[in-house]
Amino acid sequence: MTVGTAGNPAGIPGFPDAVASLAGAGDMEEFARLQWRAFEPALHEPLEVLTQDVLGATTWLVRDSGRLVGSVRCEVHGEFAHLSLVMVEPDLQGRGVGRWLVGHAEEMAPPQVTAYQLFTAAGNVAFYAGLGYVAEGERETLSSVVRMGKDR
Question: What is the pTM of this model?
Answer without folding.
Answer: 0.89
